[in-house]
Specification:
CATH topology: Rossmann fold
Number of helices: 7
Strand order of the largest sheet: 6-7-8-3-9-10
Order of helices and strands: EEEHEEHEHHHEHEHEE
Structural class: alpha/beta
Bound molecules: adenosine-5'-triphosphate
CATH architecture: 3-Layer(aba) Sandwich
Low-confidence stretches: none
Largest sheet: 6 strands, mixed
Length: 228
Amino acid sequence: MIQFKNVSKTYNKTNQALININLEINKGDFIFLVGPSGAGKSTFIKLLLKEEEPTEGNIFVEHQDITKISRRKTPYLRRNISVVFQDFRLLPNKTVYENIAFAMEVIEASSREIRRQVPMVLGMVGLSDKAKQYPHELSGGERQRVSIARAIVNNPSILIADEPTGNLDPETAWEIMKVLKQINRRGTTVVMATHAKDIVDTMQQRVIALEKGRIVRDQHKGAYGYED
Ligand SMILES: Nc1ncnc2c1ncn2[C@@H]1O[C@H](COP(=O)(O)OP(=O)(O)OP(=O)(O)O)[C@@H](O)[C@H]1O
């Protein structure tokens, strides 16, 4: 489903963020991407989202080489791969419902589909009663649920989460992990970059560790492996 083949990324001709990455991620995997600050995790995610291009190598998503897709066609990639961030990135002047509906409007979904899908994903993340609220009226955990609902509303096959629990207290972080695991059980591949040792150690999923741009560990039912 995702394949990195001899992928390297060098910024500004000298800063080697990723070095010869070879990796396969299968449909339905739940992956923790770990490693010290500056190891290359965000770069890995940016390459997958086509926000950056690799300096060398090829990246396949569903057998399609995304390094060969033109920028113009990137929105189509976004139907397959969707993302949630540490800082939620909700639109402040839209309600919860409108934030989620907006993700469907940009891919030109019909209003009928929107009316069907938005309540469905709000139910999945446990926020059916918050549809009319604005982001500033929600707790951090609720905002992250909205951002997850928005990320899954177009049924992507892959969900990327870049430190999704980084701004949340431990209890709320666990609620978010339950939601992500539930989405994974329904068949969505989840790739989550994180520094949350507790979560990684408890959940026993595949762990890929990056250090200085290289994969130093790829473990089935792995642990976090660092002290922070
Ligand atoms: N736009 C950029 N321009 C130049 N160098 C960059 C750029 N983005 C990242 N880097 C460098 O690439 C390397 C990898 O950074 P990256 O952000 O991928 O690490 P990370 O593992 O996500 O770190 P963190 O855990 O702190 O988020 C670092 O040396 C960083 O300074």
